[in-house]
């Protein structure tokens, strides 16, 4: 049995969906060229999407003496998707259309790390987001967390919450009635960038996140790289500075010690002799405080070294920088870029850096993107939109 005859989407059908999502409205001729498909194969593969109302035919365009062609596009409002990012103290959520465009956002404080309590908070947040926007019913919920998550949505390790082997996706699906998937937060953000981000046509690129921790995602030949070690935070402990401060695991000068917002705040508090938060460190550095400025410059050089390690070893020349601590880039860019240049071969291709400044919205959007790709994989969407199940009945 070929890949495209198996249940759900095969590789070619999945790429067809991604091409129309990314480039629609797009002509069938262009799609055929991009995917190396005959007109008959393209018609066969696109039919399920048209039947379910996921694809629509855009107004016909004439090409000389040829019969007017009807480009394919996605019905972006055919369904809505909710994405939620869980941190140590807050659940951040967005509700999006089929292209992962946020329509509304909301957040809820977490007063407990208990699994059942957080499931209840996320379910309530999903209900709030559903009621905040009108339109098609919600077709899926994606939730992400910093930790190791299995393909069936079991969080095997989320040390910041003290979770081990908890069925996050199943519990939320039972609580909301929505098809639910759970994923590592950096992997989800990487999927969102691959499908909907500025580098969606790059084919190969890396994603680096800075914030409460340091994350690393990789796309090679249009495939998000995921291994059994994904979610263990290995990218957060790459040694960058020989005499740098230690991270919480005792690694001196690693990426977490040099770039994570709690580490920067702790280092600045020690140097300044008073407690300061991450935002205040950046404000002080921006105002010219020499101690704070020295810390952000050092962090910039460490970031440049991390980027050079990634680009040199993975042999990619495009990187997305994102995360809730991304404001560091406004101050650290000169020192980061200087270090990156110094660590690259002079004849190597220039590194293209894309900054995603949306902070926690980017994390939540990543969760929604995973829900979208899972819904497309299973061809769960059905036309008309009104026939889709509504999780909350409102």
- The stretches of 5 or more residues where confidence is low (pLDDT under 50) are 1-7, 383-394
Shape: globular
Strand order of the largest sheet: 7-6-5-8-11
Major β-sheet profile: 5 strands, mixed
Structure description:
By secondary structure, the protein is of the alpha/beta class. The chain folds into 3 domains: 3-74, Winged helix-like DNA-binding domain superfamily/Winged helix DNA-binding domain (Arc Repressor Mutant, subunit A); 80-190 and 361-387, ATPase, nucleotide binding domain (Nucleotidyltransferase, domain 5, 2-Layer Sandwich); 199-359, Nucleotidyltransferase, domain 5, CATH 3.30.420. 40% of the residues lie in helices and 20% in strands. It has helices spanning 11-23, 28-35, 39-51, 115-132, 168-176, 185-196, 255-259, 261-272, 278-286, 290-314, 328-343, 360-377, and strands at 55-57, 61-63, 66-69, 72-74, 80-86, 90-96, 102-109, 138-145, 148-149, 155-157, 180-184, 205-210, 214-220, 223-224, 318-322, 352-355. Strands 7-6-5-8-11 form a 5-stranded mixed sheet. The protein has a 5-stranded mixed sheet with strand order 14-13-12-15-16, with helices on both faces. A two-stranded antiparallel sheet has the order 1-4. Helix 8 crosses helix 9 (278-286) and helix 10 (290-314) crosses helix 11. The radius of gyration is 22 Å and the shape is globular. The relative contact order is 0.14. InterPro entries: ATPase_NBD, ROK, WH-like_DNA-bd_sf, WH_DNA-bd_sf. Belongs to the ROK (NagC/XylR) family. This is ROK family protein.
């Amino acid at each position: 049995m070929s890949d495209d005859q198996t249940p759900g989407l095969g590789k070619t059908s999945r790429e067809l969906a991604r091409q129309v999502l990314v480039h629609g409205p797009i002509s069938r001729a262009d799609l055929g060229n991009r995917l190396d498909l005959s007109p008959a194969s393209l018609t066969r593969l696109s039919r399920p999407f048209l039947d379910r109302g996921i694809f629509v035919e855009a107004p016909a365009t004439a090409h000389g003496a040829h019969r007017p062609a009807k480009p394919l596009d996605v019905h972006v409002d055919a369904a809505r998707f909710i994405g939620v990012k869980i941190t140590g103290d807050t659940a951040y959520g967005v509700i999006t259309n089929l292209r992962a465009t946020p329509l509304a956002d909301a957040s809820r404080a977490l007063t407990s790390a208990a699994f059942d309590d957080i499931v209840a908070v996320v379910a309530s947040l999903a209900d709030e987001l559903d009621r905040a926007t009108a339109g098609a019913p919600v077709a899926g919920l994606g939730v992400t967390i910093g930790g190791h998550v299995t393909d069936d949505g079991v969080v095997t390790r989320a040390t910041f919450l003290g979770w081990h082997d908890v069925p996050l996706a199943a519990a939320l699906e039972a609580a909301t009635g929505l098809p639910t998937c759970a994923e590592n937060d950096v992997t989800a953000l990487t999927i969102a960038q691959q499908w909907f981000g500025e580098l969606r046509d790059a084919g190969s690129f890396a994603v680096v996140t800075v914030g409460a921790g340091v994350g690393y995602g990789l796309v090679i030949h249009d495939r998000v790289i995921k291994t059994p070690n994904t979610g263990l935070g290995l990218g957060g402990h790459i040694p960058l500075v020989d005499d740098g401060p230690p991270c919480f695991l005792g690694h001196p000068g690693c990426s977490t010690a040099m770039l994570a917002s709690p580490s920067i705040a702790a280092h600045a508090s020690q140097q300044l002799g008073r407690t300061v938060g991450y935002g205040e460190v950046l404000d002080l550095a921006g105002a010219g405080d020499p101690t704070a400025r020295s810390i952000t410059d050092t962090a910039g050089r460490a970031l440049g070294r991390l980027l050079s390690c990634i680009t040199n070893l993975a042999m990619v020349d495009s990187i997305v920088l994102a995360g809730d601590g991304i404001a560091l880039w406004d101050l650290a860019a000169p020192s980061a870029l200087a270090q990156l240049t110094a660590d690259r071969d002079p004849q190597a291709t220039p590194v293209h850096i894309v900054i995603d400044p949306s902070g926690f919205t980017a994390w939540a959007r990543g969760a929604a993107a995973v829900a979208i790709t899972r819904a497309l994989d299973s061809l769960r969407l059905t036309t008309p939109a009104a026939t889709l199940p509504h999780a909350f009945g409102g």
